[in-house]
Amino acid sequence: MLFEILITIFQWLIAVLGAPLLVGVIRKTKALLQGRRGPSVLQPYRNLRKLVRKQMVISEATSWIFRITPYVVIATMLLAALIVPVLSTARPVEFLGNIVLLMYLFLLGTFFLSLAGLDAGSSFGGMGSSRAMAIAALAEPTVMIAIFAIALRAGSTGLNEMIRASITDPLLMLNPGHLLAFFSFFIVALAETGRLPVDSPSTHLELTMIHEGMVLEYSGRYLALIEWASAIKLFVFLALLGNLFFPWGVAITLTPATIALAMLALTIKLGVLTVSLAVLETGLAKLRLFRVPELLGGLFMLSLLAVVSFFFLR
Amino acid sequence: MSKESTETRSDVIAAITEFSWAVELKTDFVREHELRITIAPGAFIAFADFIRQRFDARPELIFAEDTRKESSGFTLRYIFELPGRDLFVIVSTPLEKGQESFPSIGARWYLASLFEREINDLFGLTPLDHPDLRRLPLHQFWPEGYRPLLKDAKTSKPFEDDGQPFPFQQVQGEGICQITVGPVHAGIIEPGHFRFSVDGETIVNLESRLYFVHKGIEKLFESMTISRGVELAERISGDSSVAHALAFSMAVERCAGVDAPRRASYLRVVFQELERLYNHIADVGAICADTGFAVANVHTMRLREDLLRLNERIVGHRLLRGVIVPGGVTAADFSNKQIADALNTVLKARDDFNEVVAMALESAMVVDRLRGTGVLTNKTARELQVCGMAARASGIDADTRRDHPYSAYSDLKFHVPVFDEGDVWCRMMVRVEEVRESANLIVQALDSLPTGDAFRHLSNPSAGSNAFGLVEGWRGPIWHWVVFGRAGALKRVKVKDPSFSNWPALNYAILNNIVPDFPLCNKSFNLSYAGNDL
What we know:
Number of strands of chain B: 15
Largest sheet of chain A: none
Strand content of chain B: 15-25%
Radius of gyration of chain A: 19 Å
Oligomer: heterodimer
Radius of gyration of chain B: 23 Å
Strand order of the largest sheet of chain B: 1-2-5-4-3
Shape of chain B: globular
Number of domains of chain A: 1
CATH superfamily of the largest domain in chain B: Cytochrome-c3 Hydrogenase, chain B
Order of helices and strands of chain A: HHHHHHHHHHH
Distance between the termini of chain A: 36 Å
Structural class of chain B: alpha+beta
Number of domains of chain B: 2
Number of strands of chain A: 0
């Protein structure tokens, strides 16, 4: 029991502390692909350190919502990182890893960010909020349904059970639904984490911003919390993608050997995913905003097909 | 004088003589391509209507001069362009002593209404029956009654904001919101305020308020010497240093009655095209960057840097400043090695650029963003007198280099690309094709570079001599009107950057587009704030 608790804390630390590294690797890879040298992979950590030390400027027009949002956002993400099986499925408390809870946590964060975007009363915040809500309304159901396609096969919505079921019975993954679900989950993850082709994380053009628009008024410590939270969100999505759809290596039983193997597997999975994300982003342009619903609608259909295929191809 | 231009002129003179039965006017040919007409303010509108009907003439430049010392009243000047003819009609209307108003032609030409608002602010001369006489160049903190371009301008009143909001157009209706953007923007760009009225994400009206960087350039010119003047001209809009310096120099040379030597005219082509090249290449990359396609931008930035370094190697300045002067060009001694270096760099940049463009256009997502975005229709472009590159993307086949050749352009071969749809894609493709033409022009000019001097000394033009210089900058035609006072001092310089006539086009091109497409649309015009605000 104690060992399980320790491992849970350990994998949680990997998620929350390793997340900025993931962002750094994506930026570095993109820079290299574009023919630039790019900043060090540790730059996101340096940015966070810089932001924490900086003075905050808070608009007088804001209410308590603005001040509480960074804490809500980081709290939801820290909790989400606790739920997602990063290294092992062994849990001290079994009910923790539930996909529905995870989705609600994400939505809670997005909801508060949107409120904060509106709170300062600036036009960019408002635009960011309205766009983020429109996209969330389309993307979150797709994420849910894509995961349900796996959950149906495993017979549980618990993330741990899903992974365990896939490992013990690999034939479950030999299914077109699995591939469909993976594909739509991957693209929706891009929308959810504010990346191309839906949102451009590096733009300075306020009029085009979605996630960046909502957080435009934040500075200093608050901004550090929000940036850290978005990094964790990216980590959580990539870890889910890696472990749910390619569960090999995830430790079911806890021995030093399985943990070591799980760490190796995690590094490889995240490495492959981040690099492919960077490659994908380099080759993509940003979609016209009104095309985003078409993309997300298509992905929703794919996830639905993945679920339906379960009933046909049992 | 060529046969063709004689015919063009006699045709126009015949028509105007016929018209002069009705009103009293004085005609005068000062130079080959200028017909000068002096007409009383009361008869001007009838004349303007006449040449509009007869020759489809459009006023391209309107300005006032404070001539109260010489002729007791102000003088207004209108330069009309006659489409299809290499001839400009310069109309002067001297106002009476103490007369502080003049008839407006702002309801006939939109561009004229902007010039008239400018005259109203800077000279205090009121255009009568003007459709929209809000402030233009001078913001609210300029004291009431202070007219900076008067020779005796002075004020004791403080410069402070009067607290009154600018009367923007109001759009009302259910669900219509206003979005205010600027004047300070994210990123390193100049200031300008944009007022969007939106229905959801769809833009139903856009009004821009510029002139936050009104620096009094035209006032600064006054009493400068020629050599200081050309330095100021280079600094009007940094990315058009060569074009502004050239337009100014051509005006001064015409006043002095001196032509630049042949070698200089070829080198001027080279420098102008080098400027066009680095700007167009960077713009195409920036348009791609605004679609989120960063790879293209990174590569065009590299190519731009290569070209800027080439500029530094051959003339000692990255933006080619200090090269073009009235009388010719400095830095004219090129070794064969330098010429070969320039040719190599330019051709390499052109080839690399074509690869980048091919890569961008292969991406369906990039093309989807460009096509159909920010359409400026041919009709709107004509009505607003949009000029230059943006006009050529909206199906207006006009290029000063071909239509009113200067420097060595008449000796060189080039093609003027014209696209019809007027969307962002067209504005990008015009640039893509012009890059190819510019590279060709540089190769031609350097291959046939005449030997000899590249600078001819100018003596000071006589007091009162005046002329215009017109060149095709990379954005479009740039006008400089120069009047000399005593001892070679500049008395009045009027500058028109193409941004002045093209800014309003953005307000129309963006209609019915969505807010997130505005930066892309704006970038496709890439207008100068500094060149507009002066």
